[in-house]
């Protein structure tokens, strides 16, 4: 059935290749074990990488807009006391919050209505949470310009500066006020594809006589264009699989546009028009976010109307948590027994019993986690899909 295939994609294919600790530069003043969960959205992801480079916080990444119980399992394997989510519930689905809170992990979400508001929320929260002392410098990059964001991240880490993402509608005066600091220096990251957007921001800054502004040009290369094409191709493949689960006509239209833009990007790349190839790839990738969002909404509607499907999905979620604890030696015997009882009840069509047992199972999994946290911290398993000593 189509929904089963969608579940397999949502839950099985998205393994933990990105769920690894990043570079760490200094200790934090946080006494509890904290993990950051973020989507692979280029803007939010850069903020997480930035925090990780200034602290000892581990970052776990999930595909934008997609819930994967293996990601929850990876988080659990770090045995955190708290998880900070960067981004809203569309980018990082609420199922993660449910998973983590159900086993006793505190969850805090730093977000806004879009990546630009999330950007400000993260900067304001991180300085308080981790007692970070940042310079009164801002690195500006266009919020969907992967190439520019990568350069902004590099400069922000070097100078302990704040990264601020902008678009064509940015009011830079309002944005800086939201940072609640007096900014002394601005560095604008300019790339060929995004020059018009950054020009608008530069014009606003030039109206300020006290502005100390620097421009950094990032040149387009074949390698950067190809990287954007490959990323767009991966996102389109994911969106196409998820789109099989929806009848929304907008999805088919958007998918066709994205595929055409990707085709045009490849053609431009072949003709050595790397700037055009990059821009088309970025545009194609942006369409996939909408497709993934719509597919996720349809999936949740189906779950509301299908008790069996909802229970089976819940079982997949909980089993991923049980198995990761089992791999490090946490005693999950009782949890496995209850899990099999739930499975049998679903198979027999006794959904009321299955729901009762599911409540019992969640409580048992929480007990296993609370009792096994120290063991997991001492003996973290190798990530799923990777080789390594468990």
Keywords:
390 residues; globular; 11% strand; alpha/beta; disordered C terminus; 14 helices
Characterization of the model:
The structure is a single chain. Helices cover 59% and strands 11% of the residues. The chain has a 4-stranded parallel beta sheet with strand order 2-1-3-4, sandwiched between helices. Strands 6-5-7-8 form a 4-stranded parallel beta sheet, sandwiched between helices. With 390 residues, it is of the alpha/beta class. Helix 10 (249-270) packs antiparallel against helix 11. It has helices at 2-13, 42-54, 69-77, 94-102, 115-129, 146-159, 172-179, 195-206, 222-243, 249-270, 274-305, 307-326, 333-347, 351-378; strands spanning 34-39, 58-62, 82-86, 106-110, 137-142, 162-166, 185-190, 213-217. Among the domains are: 134-219, Rossmann fold (3-Layer(aba) Sandwich), CATH 3.40.50; 222-305; 307-378. Helix 2 (42-54) links the parallel strand 1 and strand 2 (58-62). The chain is globular.
Q: Could you describe the largest sheet, including whether it forms a barrel?
A: 4 strands, parallel
Q: Give the CA-based shape.
A: globular
Q: What share of residues is helical?
A: 55-70%
CATH class of the domain at 134-219: Alpha Beta
Distance between the termini: 35 Å
CATH architecture of the domain at 134-219: 3-Layer(aba) Sandwich
| Tally of strands | 8
State the CATH topology of the domain at 134-219.
Rossmann fold
Number of separate helices: 14
What is the N-to-C order of secondary-structure elements (H for helix, E for strand)?
HEHEHEHEHEHEHEHEHHHHHH
Compute the CA-based radius of gyration.
Answer: 22 Å
| Poorly predicted sequence stretches spanning 5 or more consecutive residues | 1-30, 384-390
Q: What class, by secondary structure content?
A: alpha/beta
Oligomer status? single chain
Keywords: Coiled coil
Coiled coil: 222-268, 301-328
Organism: Palaeococcus pacificus DY20341
Protein name: Cell wall-binding repeat 2 family protein
